[in-house]
């Protein structure tokens, strides 16, 4: 069979798919394999609880970071971004959202994180420039989903993790989920009881 260019093609030959990406295209040379049993979450937004605050806010309030393709955890606590090994400053990783390279419109996940780290070198953490702001800056540098204003909507990241974040099959995540449901249920029951007892 001839194609439009007069070239012979086989009926079994498949045309290249421009939007199809294999795992090899998505992974860099030093990429780590995902392994929740060892706490390795490459190219993910990661989250942990703030005991007490997390339970009293039905699981919304917590601490957030981001991992590069090697699984290194980067977070913003104190002055500048800092690196941790398989956990965040306030505890083990309890929720995560994978970042696919397919949704990164500028550079790679690693390049976006590095650009954000460079910008945060001399910045200090405070309520209006916190861990969520740092993760949003990383997403902004990557232009995730083609959206160029992640750093303006940093406050939505907590809701995004709350709604779409995965729980790894590990006991800290189960403890976080169980205590959050328990405390939130207790608070709801107290509110209901006080409203109806008056």
Features:
alpha+beta, two-stranded antiparallel ribbon, 198 residues, disordered N terminus, 6 helices
List the helices and strands and how they pair.
Layout: H1 23-26, E1 44-49, H2 53-56, E2 62-67, E3 73-76, E4 81-84, E5 87-88, E6 91-92, E7 95-98, H3 109-119, H4 131-142, H5 157-164, H6 171-197
Task: Please describe what this structure looks like.
The structure is a single chain. Helix 3 crosses helix 4 (131-142). The chain has helices at residues 23-26, 53-56, 109-119, 131-142, 157-164, 171-197; strands at residues 44-49, 62-67, 73-76, 81-84, 87-88, 91-92, 95-98. It starts with 22 loop residues before the first helix and ends with a helix. The longest helix has 27 residues, at 171-197. The protein is an alpha+beta fold and 198 residues long.
Short description:
This protein has 198 residues and is an alpha+beta fold. It is 33% helix and 14% strand. A five-stranded antiparallel β-sheet has the order 4-3-2-1-7, covered by helices on one side. It has a two-stranded antiparallel sheet with strand order 5-6.
